[in-house]
Amino acid sequence: MERQLLARGALVGIVAGLVAFVFARVLAEPLIDRAVDYESARDDAQAALDRAAGLPVEHEHADIFSRGIQANLGIGVGVVLFGLAMGTLFAVAYAVCLGRVGGVRPRSLSLLLAAGGFVGVYLVPFLKYPANPPSIGHEDTIQQRSALYLVMVLVATFGLVVAAAVGQQLAPRLGTWNATVVTVLGYLVVIGVVMAVLPSTGELGANVREYGRHATETPQPLRDGGGRIVFPGFPADDMFAFRLYSVGAQLLLWTVLGVGFAPLAERVLRRGGAAPTAPVSVSAR
Q1: Is residue 51 a contact partner of residue 272, using CB atoms and an 8 Å limit?
Q2: Could you report the per-residue pLDDT of 140-189, keeping only the tens digit for each?
Q3: I need a surface site. Which of 15, 102, 267, 281 has the fewest CB within 10 A?
Q4: Residue 5 burial by CB count (10 A; 0-12/13-18/19+): exposed, middle or buried?
Q5: Any transmembrane segments, and where (predicted)?
């Protein structure tokens, strides 16, 4: 039965990835194009300033893949593979939790797990390290940014698992409502401390040396030797819209995953003759 759940989780994950890709392709891709144009124009302005100051000028390297391939095949494959991975992990989590988290019905469990996945895997890490268009960011900080983001994902996801387990233990003594309030507050405190301890991307060494200390890596205005702005900072409206669409794409992915997996899983359970809230044996075969 667990293999059937995994197969359906992977299938729904692929569908969720495709839906999220179409959403991002229509709404976010034009913003990425503008970000690429901004980056090129900013590099030209920086090169002009460097030449005027007698400094060496870095030459631009051509991309291996064209923008058309990156915007369609590249991002599409990436998002679908992400959906496949999340769908498979989602099915594993579903099989582990079914019958072990109280009397939650199969369909409700699917929706709760999807909500938890969206919050833990994406929303909480996003609040600390919000998404930027691919061309916006310091190339020397890619590894640091990736490591910090991974730490946030692990802490946020593991924290949700611990909070759910603690809430289940507290519920008989405090009642469901009070136990939920206590665990949510505890989760927020832990996440708040972690966010306060981890550095913002603008505080990374390479950024501080080159641009000064800022909250994010969003490109600031370029100034000449006299302090006059010769090239503007990255448009705030474009950044806001890109981040909004990024949240929308992830919300769509997890919604499709939770809603789509629920009836398929329930059908598998009925076909297997399992009780609606009976635990599923999860083993590596």
Answers
A1: no
A2: 888 999 999 999 999 999 999 999 999 989 988 999 899 999 999 999 99
A3: 281
A4: buried
A5: 73-97, 109-127, 147-167, 179-198, 240-262
Q: Which position has the token pair 């179409």? A: 22
Beta-bridge mates of residue 222: 231
238: its two tokens: 């474009």
What pLDDT, in 10s, does the model give residues 117-140?
Answer: 999 999 999 999 999 888 777 778
Residue type, 148: L
Residue 230 phi/psi, 5° resolution? -110, -10
Residue spans per domain, the chain: 1-136+231-272, 137-217
Residues for the chain: how many in total? Answer: 285
The rounded distance, in Å, linking the Cα atoms of 209 and 102 is 53
pTM of the model: 0.86
- 179's CB contacts (< 8 A; 6+ apart) are 167, 168, 170, 171, 173
Provide the token pair at 137: 């960011």
Q: Nearest CA to 96 among 273, 283, 280? A: 280
Integer-rounded Cα Rg, in Å, for the chain is 23
End-to-end CA distance of the chain: 12
- Tokens 């709760």 belong to which residue? 112
